[in-house]
Give the backbone structure.
Amino acid sequence: MFNKKTIEDIDVSGKKVLVRVDFNVPIKDGKVSDDTRIQAALPTIKYLMDHEATLILCSHLGRPKGEVKPEFSLEPVADHLGRILDRRVQFAEDCVGPVAEKVANQLNQGDVLLLENTRFHAGEKKNDPEMAKKLADLADVYVNDAFGTAHRAHASTVGVAQYLPSVAGFLMEKEIIYLGQAVADPARPFIAILGGAKISDKIGVIQNLLDRADQVLIGGGMANTFFKAQGYPIGDSLVEDEALQTARELLNLADNRLRLPVDVVIGDKFQADADQMIMSMGPIPDGWRILDIGPETISNFKKPISEARTVVWNGPMGVFEFPQFAKGTIGIAEIIAQSSATSIIGGGDSVAAVKQAGLADKITHISTGGGASLEMLEGKVLPGMAALADKD
Ligand code: AMP
């Protein structure tokens, strides 16, 4: 379970606190276009402000590949955060070295500073000890609240923790408690729902959840590879031939705990305006492809989800970006929203679908981390978490 120290376990008053946040947000025309991740970091930021800490925030943004690329600058995020907090947020044009040191040294107690993109340095992704030490030298205490990057062992997520007292922020704590509990000690029945494009991205997750969940409901493109493994012709559906053997093994291992769609919505092309047909699962005609789960599958999945006490969902049930193939994904989102189970949703696309359907406030926990939440569901220990101090 969650056994790490948090910001509530240490004295931050008068200290310079380096906070690794996940401000990897979309930027359009120099402005933050979706600030979900910034909002998610606010409880930690506000707590530290209220407890008289001086804040030095750092994050990555996008994939600048170790070079300074202005389109990946965090400066618009500093402006945005300043507006949310209704106070000045300073910005340093580098995250380590003389520029960062100068700004950090001049901070007054209670100031808030955001450092430039950590991935402007190649040392970040290499977990370079020298970069980690330079980051640590800016502050007295390190807080990791960047759940979305906790599965990466980088200088600002792992290396830095060697040099400073290191604790978790509230977002990190909340994510690990919900996802960790669901996997390790779920209230039962525990139903996992997995979808999305591919099996290959989620083999470890399917294996781990087959061990732990009472049922694993499968939809989305990943169901196609299972269908092919069962011997169905699947027309032009997305399939991963290289994962067929794995799919067979999972089907053998799972007996009746793994449930596949019993009907599907097929389209005659991969386009929003494709002609569509609903059919019971059987040989898919040539030239057609599976693009959603069908109505009977939605109603079959309803019973286990409604009776569950824990539901975990990752990955859409179909190509929900095309409205006529979004019914499965929205239908499942609605059933989860109506259920009284502890519901946990991770992965960008299922989260987007739940928000699109206006159901986000009916979900117990919406994870801010795609890859990190999948690794939790796989039962892995996240390096960014492991690096933090244990509770006494
Ligand atoms: P993932 O990132 O693995 O969760 O996959 C999400 C993507 O899977 C979305 O963009 C969906 O459009 C896509 N997807 C879901 N079902 C299907 C399907 N039956 N055929 C092709 N793509 C699908």
